[in-house]
Write a structure and sequence with these properties.
The protein has 82 residues and is α+β, with helices and mostly antiparallel strands. Helices cover 22% and strands 34% of the residues. The two termini are 20 Å apart.
Length: 82
């Protein structure tokens, strides 16, 4: 799975205290799960990072791969997907 990075999404994700490596590792995690978002053309994914943090990623599928719009840590009780 190829993630598409730009200046804007990198800043948003880092502002939530996550590294880009953490987001990439969550996409590859065994517990990664996705659901369709309420917003058109967007998806919500959740998974555990390489540093054992549970995160939620809002992303869009593009011709070049998957564009993480933002990502942030969540608590288990906030988990939306299975």
């Amino acid at each position: 799975m190829k993630l598409v990075w730009g200046h804007r999404n990198q800043e948003k994700i880092q502002a939530h205290g996550l590294s880009l490596d953490e987001v990439e590792s969550a996409f590859d995690a065994q517990d990664w799960a996705t659901a369709v978002s309420d917003q058109p053309y967007r998806f919500v994914g959740e998974g555990t990072t390489s540093s054992d943090r549970l995160i939620r990623v809002i992303f869009a599928e593009t011709d070049d791969g998957f564009y993480p719009i933002t990502a942030f840590p969540i608590r288990i009780r906030q988990r939306r997907t299975t």
